[in-house]
Design brief:
The complex is a heterodimer of chains A (298) and B (214). With 298 residues, chain A is of the alpha/beta class. Helix content of chain A is 39%, strand content 18%. Chain A contains ten helices and twelve strands. In chain A, the strands form four sheets. In chain A, strands 9-10-8-11 form a four-stranded mixed beta sheet. A three-stranded parallel beta sheet of chain A has the order 5-1-6. With 214 residues, chain B is mainly alpha-helical. Chain B has ten helices and no strands. In chain B, helix 3 packs across helix 5 and helix 6 runs antiparallel to helix 7. The longest helix of chain B is centred in the N-terminal third of the chain and has 33 residues. The relative contact order of chain B is 0.15. Classes of the chains: A alpha/beta (298), B mainly alpha (214). Chains A and B meet through helix 7 of A and helix 9 of B.
Amino acid sequence: MSNRSTRRRTSLVAVLCTLVLLIAACGDKKDDKKTTAPAKAPTFTTGSTMAKIQKKGKLTVGIKFDQPLFGLRSATSGGFEGFDVEIAKLIAQGIFGKGGADKITYKETPSKIREDSITGGDVDIVIATYTINDKRKKVVDFAGPYFQAGQRIMVKSDNTDIKGVKDLNGKKVCSVTGSTSIDNIKAQAPKADISNPFDTYSKCGEELKNGRVDAVTTDDSILYGLVSQNKGELKVVGDAFTEEPYGIGLKKGDDAFRTFLNNRIEAIEKSGEWKKAYKDTVGKIRTTTPEPPKVDRY
Amino acid sequence: MRVILDNLDTFTMALGVTLLLSLLSFAGAFLVGAALAAARVSPVPPLRQAATLLTELFRNIPLVVLLFLLYFGIPKIDIRFSPFITAVIGMSLYTGAYMGETIRSGINSVAVGQAEAARSLGLGFGQVLGIVVLPQALRTVVQPIGNLFSAHAKNTAIAASISVKDLTYQANKLGQENAEAVTTLLAVGMVYVVLLLGAGYGFAVLERRTAIRR
């Protein structure tokens, strides 16, 4: 390679870089008005979890890799997308300042291993459609809730006779074996036929599309994910009939860290960043943007 | 242990489902296998090729995939079978492919002179196969068919994935609901062992009775 062509190429790269920087800078300026990310990394009390994470230079977050709209690894790019991922980025910005979003290591934490990942120290926090409940509070602590899910009903797009949970009486309904969704439906619509549960929600979705069942019921967050994968074929109807507050899981007893996370959640809810994260992910399927839930400092 | 005793009637029902599924689909597999074997030794080339194709197809698709395709795929053309019927069909085809190869190996073990003698007496292909060759062929493959049955009966556990309420399905369900999955699966595992020891004994007796003394 001659010297000259190297130089020419270098200058071309330089021009391109400048262009990219300019565009990026313009974009940043727009966001600057809303962002609550500190320009420089804030200082934390030495010895606190926040300070340790800052020193390590990375925040390890447990998310779902297979939950559309919340935590999903893109099959094409290998990147991560979803509401939980956006929340993780906003938390990271609170620890590292601007650019903190790039300092996250994502680990897959399916439902079964969420508690063990936290107690074993595999992850700093878990943001994985993680419902806060008393049983889990005995093992881990929760910041938030940062999202309010609830059990709802999914039907085929052309269905008009199922509008709420009471309409499920006498209808065939699919849910997942052993889930709390099944117990809830038994209580709310005792005459619903739930004799054929499956082991995954995607199978329930197939049953619905094939017309073997009339409805599928579980957390709306999961249902919206299925709707997003089957655009135009399925829809979510009626109001939520249970409350499933999603929280950020962390090590039990780390109160300083929990307070920090709670403050951070409140800050992004107030600034509008929460709403933006919602609109960019779940809002693509669910058109109404709800009010963010109130943080519960138990 | 409580979870087993409290749900004894559910497990008994499930045992019935497992037995019925095993036997029905094994009978189906025998028919499929006999047809495939006959086609593969027939003098008609297209029939031979078709049988080879089907054998390789059903033998080389994982059973869990085959059942999934049958249960969730077929309804796309507006035909709906219950999970149980789907499992019977799927397992008949799957084990049928193996059965066909087993029977064919039996047919190949019958001395050529037998078929030639039958033909020289004026018997047609069907008669040669049905009256002369198959009865001898089957006697030599009782042991491998018994082997196939034990693999087949255990494979019925996969039908649980399309919600056939067999032993494995109930063990998973009740295990999950009561947080006792190890207990229920262990219990059900033992039931399979006992069942198959019985079947193995049956086939051993059958083998002794039908063995050709050479």
